[in-house]
Specification:
This protein has 2 domains: 206 residues, 3-Layer(aba) Sandwich (Rossmann fold); 191 residues, Rossmann fold (3-Layer(aba) Sandwich), CATH 3.40.50. By secondary structure, the chain is α/β, with parallel strands linked by helices. The longest helix has 31 residues. The chain contains 15 helices and 13 strands. Helices cover 38% and strands 12% of the residues. 45% of the residues are buried. An 8-stranded mixed sheet has the order 3-2-1-4-5-6-7-8, with helices on both faces. Strands 10-9-11-12-13 form a 5-stranded parallel sheet, with helices on one face. It binds nicotinamide-adenine-dinucleotide (NAD). The site of nicotinamide-adenine-dinucleotide has 27 residues, from helix 5.
Amino acid sequence: MTLQQLITERKAKVGIIGLGYVGLPLMRAFFKAGYPVIGYDVDPAKIEKIHKGENYLKHLGEDFIAEMSQADSFDATADFDRLGEADALLLCVPTPLGKHLEPDLSYVEVTTEAIAKTLRKGQLVVLESTTYPGTTRQVMQPVLEKTGLKCGEDFFLAYSPEREDPGRKNFNTQTIPKLVGGIGEEAGKMALELYAAAVSKAIPVSSAEVAESAKLLENIYRSVNIALVNEMKVVLDAMGIDIWEVVDAAATKPFGFQAFYPGPGLGGHCIPIDPYYLTWKAREVGHTTRFIELAGEVNHAMPDYVVNKTMLALNKNKKAVAASRILVLGLAYKPNVDDIRESPSFEIIEKLQELGGDVYYNDPHVPATHKMREYDLQMESVELTADTIKQYDCVVIATNHEAYDWQMIADNAQLVIDSRGALREVTGKRDHIVNA
Ligand SMILES: NC(=O)c1ccc[n+]([C@@H]2O[C@H](COP(=O)([O-])OP(=O)(O)OC[C@H]3O[C@@H](n4cnc5c(N)ncnc54)[C@H](O)[C@@H]3O)[C@@H](O)[C@H]2O)c1
């Protein structure tokens, strides 16, 4: 059977490489669409959990893997010699930044080398990881063609950016429209048909580069607009104007404005990282990306802004950070998930500790910290009750998880620094609440 027939008849075996925030839901989308699926990950602990039907990504719900793990049409493995089994291979591996904000494509490269070892005629390879324009053609294609097989004739190569937003309730992998751009017309067509069978809308674009660039534009747009509203926050706060009320007011305009909200800084594996992929690539064509770098500068200053506000508010209460017990609420970078990657909470905690503060954290989704690239806080989430909260000189709201009882927090805290507008609706006394 040709790849085309396998896709049309839902017999193509879909292999997902990298079973994290992106890969795991994607695997289930193809499973639900009736395709046989096989998941690959370098982490044997994840593979073991999958086989036992255990979900390691809490926000997806406990049963997310259970049904899939029982099915004959499903498998998961850490054995990369089995990459040849799949008819279509979708890469969802990390694309982080190096120390000097340069793209780290090592995961994409290693995975492509592994695919090349078992590449066979009729296989479709699609990169989903966020990256700079040209990665699919310039980095992946030559490695795959070293096998002697020809792209567009023997095998097919495409790019389809992942737009997953973990924790979002109104959209999921199946309902978020998917862009697809091929290296050559055939690859684009093949990948489009495959995705169209698993997601509600697959949109073709003329090349892999267009799809790669569109994904970057989406994330740069977010980074720039978040920076804009963070800058407005600082300015309006100095004027005694509430940024949250201002954004809501502006958002009543039915066109030409989209609401973005201020916060304690950027987090996650996308917005703080992806824009710099373009900054790096732009230098190759003699250009700078001033919007990206300015937005980065403004957003990166936010944890310091929150710490400074905390210092000043404690000072007003005749206290020093060095003599204070401080509770940070929320370690995850956004509400209702356990994702702590690049979370500004870590920088806030570390800075307060450097100033001598006795710092604690509570996060209902993150019971303890683990060693990360830049941080090893070795902390555990403390209990949060009306009684315990009274014992802190100051509470810093870093993440607005729905699980928090804001009224209880406002009623019992001595002083609250609110970087999320979380206490806007609480009633009663407010003079101990400071926006940051
Ligand atoms: N998290 C998001 O919300 C999101 C949204 C859109 C796009 N993306 C992009 O998707 C990509 C993946 O992000 P993620 O959040 O799923 O990352 P993740 O860290 O949650 O998952 C990556 C997975 O890949 C595995 N892995 C690492 N090296 C591997 C290798 N060589 N072979 C196979 N597996 C390997 C890891 O063990 C992990 O399970 C990134 O490029 C990211 O920018 C992420």
